[in-house]
Specification:
The protein is an alpha/beta fold and 539 residues long. Helix content is 46%, strand content 25%. It is built from 14 helices and 21 strands. The strands form 6 sheets. The protein has a 6-stranded mixed sheet, sandwiched between helices. Helix 4 packs across helix 10 and helix 8 packs across helix 9. The longest helix is centred in the last third of the chain and has 55 residues. It is elongated and about 120 Å long.
């Protein structure tokens, strides 16, 4: 089996289709070598997997077509997360440094680690975007080196429902394909359809999908909002179905007569006049059809306006609004967005900003109709090889040896993964103990401060100091050695190191407090004894 350049494979699970694309980076250009898609009307709703069996079948169909085109076996894959499974929430983390302190990276890491803790039991973190930091009253994007007593960090966390992620993972487990990682589809899309000027000066990206509409707001090159509205162009099609017509006919109606601002500046080829005859012979005024389309679109745009306002940057979007997604092809959509948002700078991103893509003639991929921007953006974000070798019919003995090698590697990988899982569980357990210990040390410091003369309180504090220093032993060291050097565990290891730094800082404060209490108590004790002796002599 000859060597080949790393091939990246990504999949986007959407409400109307599952799309997959494969490509390889060469000389700074992504060369797309395969594309495939399969319809998902009855198994994915608003970007959420509801029917695992049917979704698995769709994924298998897409992967099979990719493999046939590129002649390679897909073994791993990147998956884009979007739709109603995603939510974003703001987190404010405060750290009181007690005394004026020069902020270093450990302080930032500790605040960042705390911000990544998801407060909802049924959700997990997908991505976190630091907004800014406040040292005392000074707002900055980089607080390292600034002296202050209070440090605050503001973060935008994108979280996903754990059950829904498990559904996606189960689908890929059923195909024997490993997920390298999940990507926030809307963020990867925004990075590739917005210009640097738009991201810096302030811009809102609106991705009009089939089941959902996603809003991403950028300002100063920072993601300020990621919001999913559970309304999409499928809702318009369903409204048209209320005319007692089939879904497919309703979809054709939307494509043929859809107009975001019907009746505005009519042209000679305007088809808003007259009647439409359904497949079963009934007549409807075209104006009525357009009214239904406009009514639902107005509702979607009202929600878009609300979400942009929620970002607190609606008055500072100098870059305006950028539209993309399949729904962005609707006639006069730019004008409708202007009217509903009161933002007069609107453009449609029909293709990616940078010309860094070369499309193979073997694919049926269109790069200029808004519909494939997301899956191609996901492809551009990938780095790891996703294929295991060429598809062919090698000699029987070679094939047997290859199968044996694969089985051995798979068994070794399973063993290593179990070891890593156990080490990660151990690390997470110690992180929990460290957090509890830090709180206990802080409480003890307060007790010693309030009861300086109480010898029992001081002795308890000394015992706690000894216990704290001996908390991390051989088991912890073994766990960290197992996880060290692996990218997917870097964050957990950094969080543990930050907690250790925090623990050591709190221990030092407690030691200083105990010494000061003993010093003050010793002076008082000696003074009291001297007074007693003096009174005894007088007697």
């Amino acid at each position: 089996m000859g060597e080949f350049e790393p091939i990246i494979v990504t999949i986007e699970i959407g409400s109307s289709k599952i799309a997959g694309v494969a490509g390889k980076m060469k000389d700074g250009t992504m060369q797309i070598i395969a594309y495939a898609e399969d319809q998902t009307h009855d198994c994915v709703k608003r970007g959420v997997v509801y029917n695992i069996e049917k979704t698995t079948l769709c994924i298998k169909n897409v992967v099979s077509r990719l493999e046939t085109t590129m002649k390679h076996k897909v073994s791993r894959i990147y998956v884009g997360l979007g739709g109603q499974s995603l939510h974003s929430e703001f987190r404010l983390v405060q750290s009181n440094l007690q005394t004026p302190t020069c902020i270093n990276q450990a302080h930032i890491d500790a605040v960042t680690a705390e911000s990544r803790e998801v407060l909802r039991d049924d959700y997990q973190l997908v991505e976190s975007f630091p907004q800014d930091f406040i040292v005392d009253s000074n707002v900055t994007s980089d607080p390292v080196g600034i002296v202050g007593t209070n440090l605050e960090g503001r973060f935008l966390n994108v979280i996903a429902n754990s059950k829904l992620i498990n559904n996606i993972t189960t689908c890929f487990d059923n195909t024997d394909i490993d997920i390298i990682g999940f990507k926030v589809s809307a963020h990867e899309l925004a990075k590739n359809v917005l210009t640097e000027t738009e991201k810096r000066s302030g811009c809102a990206l609106i991705d009009f999908g089939a089941g959902t509409t996603t809003v991403v707001v950028f300002k100063n090159n920072i993601v300020r909002l990621v919001s999913t509205i559970p309304l999409g162009f499928n809702n318009i099609i369903q409204d048209l179905c209320s005319l007692q017509i089939e879904y497919s006919e309703a979809k054709e109606l939307l494509m043929k007569y859809g107009d975001a601002v019907p009746g505005d500046n009519p042209s000679e080829d305007d088809e808003s006049e007259g009647d439409y005859v359904t497949t079963d012979g009934r007549n409807f005024e075209i104006a009525k059809i357009q009214f239904i389309i406009e009514a639902r679109l107005t509702e979607i745009l009202a929600n878009v306006r609300t979400q942009i306002s929620r970002s607190d940057y609606s008055e500072n979007l100098l870059g305006g609004i950028v539209l993309t997604g399949g729904g962005a092809n609707l006639k006069n959509l730019e004008r409708a967005v202007m009217r509903n948002t009161n933002i007069d700078k609107v453009r449609v991103a029909r293709k990616l900003v940078e010309p860094i893509i070369k499309n193979s003639t073997l694919t049926n991929l269109s790069l200029d109709k808004c519909t494939t921007n997301t899956v191609v953006s996901l492809l551009l974000s990938g780095t790891d090889n996703c294929v295991s070798g060429e598809i062919g019919d090698p000699d029987m003995f070679v094939r047997q040896q290859t199968d044996n090698d694969i089985s051995t590697k798979k068994a070794n990988a399973t063993s290593v993964q179990k070891e890593e899982d156990a080490a990660l569980a151990t690390l997470e357990g110690y992180k929990g103990k460290l957090r509890e210990l830090i709180v206990q040390i802080q409480d003890t410091t307060e007790d010693v401060t309030e009861h300086k003369a109480n010898k029992h309180v001081r002795n308890d504090a000394k015992e706690l100091i000894n216990e704290s220093n001996s908390l991390l032993g051989a088991e912890y060291e073994q766990a960290t050695r197992t996880l060290m050097g692996k990218d997917k565990y870097k964050q957990s290891l950094r969080e543990a190191e930050s907690l250790i730094v925090k623990r050591d800082d709190e221990i030092k404060k407690l030691e200083d407090t105990v010494r000061q209490a003993e010093k003050e108590t010793g002076i008082i004790t000696r003074l009291t004894a001297w007074i007693d002796d003096l009174l005894t002599e007088k007697d």
